[in-house]
Specification:
The complex is a heterotrimer of chains A (290), B (548) and C (269).
Chain A (H helix, E strand, L loop, with lengths): L1 H31 L16 H12 L4 H13 L13 H37 L2 H16 L2 H10 L4 H25 L2 H8 L4 H39 L4 H10 L3 H33 L1
Chain B lengths: L5 H27 L5 E6 L14 H10 L4 E3 L6 E3 L2 E6 L5 E6 L13 H11 L7 H6 L7 E6 L2 E5 L7 H4 L21 E7 L3 E6 L18 E6 L3 H9 L5 E2 L4 H10 L4 E15 L9 H7 L2 H10 L2 H8 L4 E3 L23 H10 L3 E3 L2 E3 L7 E7 L3 H15 L4 E7 L1 H11 L4 E6 L10 H4 L18 H15 L3 H18 L2 E13 L3 E2 L18 E2 L3
Parallel strand pairs in B: 1-10, 16-17, 16-18
Antiparallel strand pairs in B: 2-3, 4-5, 5-7, 6-7, 8-9, 9-10, 11-19, 12-18, 12-19, 13-19, 14-15, 20-21
Helix pairs in contact in B: 9-11, 15-16
Chain C lengths: L2 H18 L1 H4 L31 H37 L1 H16 L3 H10 L6 H15 L2 H15 L2 H8 L4 H9 L4 H21 L14 H6 L15 H24 L1
Helix pairs in contact in C: 1-3, 1-12, 3-4, 3-6, 3-7, 3-10, 4-7, 10-12
The chains are: A mainly alpha (290), B alpha+beta (548), C mainly alpha (269).
Chain lengths: 290, 548, 269
């Protein structure tokens, strides 16, 4: 019990370290990228020299990245995530207002994507018809080749929900991995032998195939969360959905450092959470097997 | 008020006739149509502020136009000043002082009464040196503080430390705040007020129950109950929603979409003719730029810049990129700016042969189809423009093809806006930029910082300690002269000469003036799209929605 | 070789062949602007019509194929290899190695790489040749695109570590690098093939999207990505179905790739 506690503590410490490093690296990336010091408003010919200078000075406050990050961490520890440069609102309010929409979008999108891929992959594995396989390849290839922006526009055109677009962007990837892994499992000698002996399909699937592919599927499940987050950016931006994805795009284009750092920290946290839970579930399952 | 010459008085008169007809039509329509209804359209970005004094982006500007009450309004159709909250005004001879006589019995949207004190308060807030807003800066002509004097509840005068050219026109941008209201900037004097704001998605404006204007029948304006604004940066989605009837207006419509819409429903699209906006190309002449010296020599050569200008087929830019909904541009002022446009400017004809001759006279030569300078360097340069603006990307590719014909190899590079601005204003690491200027101000004073060689916004060679060329020195002198003169004709004379210098020297190679294109749903009555922003809803308080 | 596989190979050879015969099939070239015939529908002179600047779409598809069909698979291969090395090794080695590699992978999945790409563009000169720009772009895509596959690979390799045949191999005295290359990596094929296949179209599209940062193929050169991006003004595609040709072609090519791989994969299994 004591060692379990220690393990959990060590794991949490690792998570915290990665999140902090992620925030710092993202701040550095943003800071080093060109355009950090510049503001579109500088081009307004009505502004006089002092105002342009004031605009620049307001950006230079975060010139020293170490100082900025240290300051950010101290404030964050007190629950203050800073103020967005571009939108002039507290980052905390912005994130709090927009997170539910993105969470819902990604949750529904992922569930749909997994429903599609598992259905297609399982049917492909059971049927083992090359025509069916080619058809599903063409279908998933079609969505893979379609620019995300086009899918998003079509969803607006047909009044389809944004989560469906996320599902259609994510599913070709998850389907392809699942199908390949599943087929590989089905081709294993002992499963071929079991089939030859006339063992039922359901039994083969649940007793022999799923245990073999579970670790990969779980890892894929964790990674698909990142895929969905990536897909949410163009979908929200184009469909006019006020979520974190739209905010991420806006803040990137405005080089809104405080907002970007917080979004990266949030994304890192979600990614870590998804992947670690996949790992933990995997370990538990393996533990039971042994 | 006297600034318009005879040439423009005629147009102004015909415009006011047109306005009278429209207003009659509005009255007629509104007699037939009951009041109420909701107008819906899209803002292309999130408004950065609801404080009218801090406005520095289009979306906030739109909110200010619809909600803010101003003393003087520039009529977007006639381009003339009209009294709003001020019954009358007077600018002193020295151009330093303006006195207003105000309407009485006016209330803010929360019921707080409006008086001269609010005007004084607004001006003091606006002129606060720590505010740094474009609206405030336009009034800042000299060092010193601004004095406001409240004479009575309906009389106020404002004195500036130095003359401000075109002073009265600037008040079109100043929405009056309430000194006493607890709702601060959310208490407004305009026809609408912000009722709901969902960050990142929508804003709802409701009619201001205290709005003072009435129509000829004595009915209170505005006719509309509310305006629903969706924040939608994507133009394709905007068009889609317009086609589906989910929104009623599109401002500054892309020419491509204009043609698509006009093919199916010609009655909804409007081409108001050339707008004030221009698109231009310029070469980097900054001494501190890190580009190679021989390239700087090309860019600093008048002959080189003129040759490039001659070698660009502006008719094709207008025809191919804008489907004919743009006019070739030759100078800094759009012909739409009726008073200030210099009618003596000669159109730049497309003539690659003359261009090549000009270059050869300047020491360039053609070798195996490539243009080389006198030291044998091939003439290769890059044009950068902001990514995502299809029209600019296409213009750059057409120019690339045009210049290939005189042996010049152009690389087109699209950059995200912040990277482009950094190269343009800080590192000066670029060769040529293709960009547009959005002109909101008819008066050349608004562009003072573009033409003065000492200014940061003097893009081709900013922040010069002393003018590096004689023509820039002359432009500085002329710009200062027009700013301090009070006689509009003298000012025009000076600014005409500036336009001629620009045409001779081509520091900015002006390409086209876009037409002001818009779409208005047939269910909206009373709309009369114009070239000035906000094109379609400048008369929002008079608009009505059919069937409501 | 099955019939399907032969057919798929034939398609790939045909498409690649056509792209190399572009000079002969579309002699006008991809940059020639027929300014009096912009946005034209297909005709005998322009088989796929012209684009908004009057350039022959057929020529642009052919020339675009050259770049995209060569570089996208190359970048996909690079990212697959990186994923195999990092993910496979981490899973196989286990313990602290695995934890460290997965921590790095998680970071990679979450960082805003957009800014690295913007910086990369700033480091390149403005007058960079289009070929260099596009090669750099695909290289970056390959280098940055491995992380999600690495996680799945790590899970696969982990489960292989404790599998019977690896134990048997160990017992037979096969260790270290040899065990990894000979026994672990080949068993990761299903995931590797999936990663390779998915990456091709993803990279082709990303290249076009990076155009907004000044990376990727520069005008007037075409790429499949830039041709697909034209679909974004989709409102009229219903009336102009020939605009879908680049999309259909890409789907056909990607499917052919999959068929070629898929057969080998089943043979391998």
């Amino acid at each position: 019990m004591h060692s379990l506690k220690r393990k959990i503590a060590a794991h949490l410490a690792l998570v915290a370290a990665i999140v902090l490093i992620g925030g710092f690296l993202s701040a550095t990336l943003v800071r080093l990228a060109p355009g950090f010091d510049s503001d579109e408003r500088e081009l307004d010919p009505r502004l006089n020299a002092e105002s342009v200078q004031a605009l620049r000075d307001s950006r230079r406050q975060s010139d020293n990245i170490f100082r900025f990050y240290f300051h950010y961490m101290i404030l964050a520890a007190h629950g203050d995530l800073g103020q967005s440069l571009a939108l002039g609102q507290p980052v905390r309010t912005l994130l709090r207002d927009r997170a539910p929409l993105t969470a819902r979008l990604i949750a529904i999108g992922l569930s749909l994507a997994w429903a599609f891929s598992l259905t297609l992959a399982l049917s492909a594995a059971w049927l083992r018809l090359s025509i069916y396989d080619t058809a599903t390849t063409i279908l998933s290839g079609f969505f893979l080749c379609m620019p995300a922006a086009v899918l998003a526009l079509l969803s607006v055109l047909w009044n389809a929900p944004g989560s469906l677009v996320i599902a259609l962007i994510v599913f070709p990837g998850t389907y392809r991995y699942t199908r390949n892994v599943l087929l590989k499992a089905y081709y294993q000698p002992h499963i071929l032998a079991a089939r030859a002996r006339g063992v039922g399909e359901a039994r083969i699937l649940f007793w022999h195939v799923i245990p073999v592919i579970m670790p990969q599927l779980l890892a894929l499940g964790g990674v698909s969360v990142s895929m969905a987050i990536g897909a949410a950016i163009p979908v929200e931006a184009l469909c006019g959905l006020a979520g974190i994805g739209q905010l991420a795009w806006q803040s990137a284009m405005a080089r809104d450092l405080p907002l970007l750092v917080n979004i990266t920290v949030l994304v890192t946290l979600v990614t870590l959470l998804a992947n670690s839970s996949a790992d933990v579930i995997g370990a538990v399952i393996r533990g039971q097997e042994v | 008020m006297k600034r318009h010459s005879k040439a423009s008085t005629y147009t102004a008169r015909s415009c006011s006739k047109a306005l009278a007809v429209i207003l009659c039509a509005v009255c007629f329509c509104s007699a037939a149509l009951a009041q109420g209804g909701e107008l819906r359209f899209c803002l292309r970005s999130e408004p950065k502020t609801f404080d009218p004094l801090k406005v520095d982006d289009d979306a906030s500007g739109a909110i200010r136009y619809l909600t803010g009450g101003v003393l003087i309004r520039e009529n977007r159709q006639t381009q003339q000043l009209e009294p709003e909250l001020a019954l009358s005004w007077k600018v002193s001879k020295d151009g330093r002082q303006i006195s207003f006589r105000l309407r009485s019995g006016i209330f803010f949207s929360d019921g707080t009464p409006f008086s001269a004190e609010d005007v004084a308060y607004t001006i003091q807030q606006l002129m606060d040196p720590a505010l740094h807003s474009p609206t405030g800066d336009t009034f800042r002509s000299g060092i010193g503080s601004v004095e406001t004097k409240v004479i009575s509840a309906t009389q106020v005068s404002i004195r500036f430390p130095a003359p401000v050219a075109g002073l009265d026109r600037l008040f079109d941008q100043v929405a009056i705040l309430s000194e006493h209201s607890l709702k601060k900037e959310m208490a407004v004097l305009g026809p609408f007020m912000v009722a709901d704001y969902k960050a990142g998605s929508s804003i709802i404006l409701r009619r201001n129950p205290y709005y003072w204007k009435t129509d000829a029948q004595g009915r209170k304006l505005p006719y509309l109950d509310s305006i629903h604004l969706d924040i939608q940066p994507n133009r394709d989605v905007e068009l889609l929603r317009f086609k589906r009837g989910e929104i009623d207006l599109i401002n500054s419509l892309d020419s491509e979409y204009f043609d698509k819409l006009s093919a199916t429903s010609p009655q909804v699209v409007h081409d108001a003719g050339p707008s004030l906006d221009s698109e231009q190309l310029w070469f980097n002449q900054a001494a501190k730029s890190p580009i190679p010296g021989y390239k700087k020599n090309w860019f600093r050569s008048t002959a080189f810049r003129r040759a490039i200008s001659e070698a660009i087929n502006r008719d094709d830019l207008s025809r191919v990129v804008y489907h004919g909904h743009a006019q070739p541009a030759f100078g800094p002022v759009s012909p739409a700016n009726k008073f200030w446009f210099d009618n003596n400017l000669k159109p730049q004809t497309y003539d690659p042969e003359t261009a090549l001759n000009t270059l050869q006279n300047d020491g360039f030569r053609i070798e195996n189809g490539t243009l080389k300078d006198k030291d044998g360097n091939s003439v290769v340069f890059s044009i950068i423009t902001n990514a995502g603006n299809k029209a600019r990307e296409r213009m750059a590719v057409l120019i690339q093809d045009d210049l290939q014909k005189i042996g010049i190899h152009v690389n087109v590079v699209t950059l995200d806006f912040p990277s482009l601005i950094e190269r343009m204003t800080q590192t000066f690491d670029y060769e040529a930029i293709l960009l547009g200027l959005t002109n909101v101000d008819l008066d050349p004073n608004g562009e003072m910082n573009v033409w003065l060689s000492s200014s940061e916004n003097h893009q081709w060679n900013p922040s010069q300690k002393v003018p590096e060329t004689t023509w820039e020195a002359e432009m500085d002198r002329l710009m200062r002269a027009q700013a301090s003169a009070s006689d509009p004709n003298k000012r025009k004379e000076a600014f005409d000469r500036v336009q001629e210098i620009v045409a001779e020297q081509q520091p900015f190679i002006f390409l086209i003036n876009k037409n002001a294109l818009s779409a208005v749903s047939t269910s909206i009555h009373g709309a009369a799209p114009v070239i000035l922003s906000p094109q379609t809803y400048w008369n929002a308080e008079w608009l009505t929605v059919a069937g409501k | 070789m099955s019939l399907g596989q032969r057919l798929a190979c034939a398609v790939l050879v045909l498409v690649l062949g056509a792209s190399f015969a572009a000079n002969w099939l579309a002699p006008a070239g991809y940059a020639r602007q027929y300014r009096d015939a912009t946005d034209a529908p297909p005709s005998h002179t322009h088989w796929l019509g012209t684009d908004e600047l009057g350039r022959d779409r057929f020529a642009r598809v052919l020339y675009g194929t050259r770049i995209s069909l060569l570089l996208a698979p190359a970048a996909a291969l690079l990212s697959t290899l990186l994923a195999a090395l990092i993910g496979g090794f981490a899973g196989y080695a286990g313990g602290a190695w695995k934890r460290a590699a997965m921590a790095i992978t998680d970071l990679f999945l979450s960082l805003p790489w957009l800014f690295l790409l913007i910086t990369a563009r700033a480091l390149l000169p403005l007058n960079v040749s289009p070929v260099v720009s596009v090669v750099v772009t695909f290289l970056l895509l390959g280098v940055l695109g491995w992380s999600s596959a690495a996680r799945v690979l790590c899970a696969s390799a982990s489960s292989l570590r404790s599998s019977d045949f690896v134990r048997q191999a160990r017992a037979a005295g096969i260790h270290g690098r040899r065990l990894f290359w000979m026994h672990v990596l080949p068993n990761l094929k299903p995931v590797l093939f999936a990663q390779f296949w998915i990456s091709i179209p993803v990279f082709i599209l990303s290249e076009a999207n990076l155009g907004i940062l000044g990376l990727g193929v520069a005008e007037p050169m075409p790429s499949w990505g830039s041709l697909l991006k034209e679909l974004e003004g989709l409102v009229s595609v219903g009336e102009e179905p020939w605009r879908l040709v680049p999309l259909i072609l890409l789907v056909i090519v990607v499917t052919s790739f999959q068929i070629v791989i898929s057969n080998q994969e089943e043979v391998a299994a």
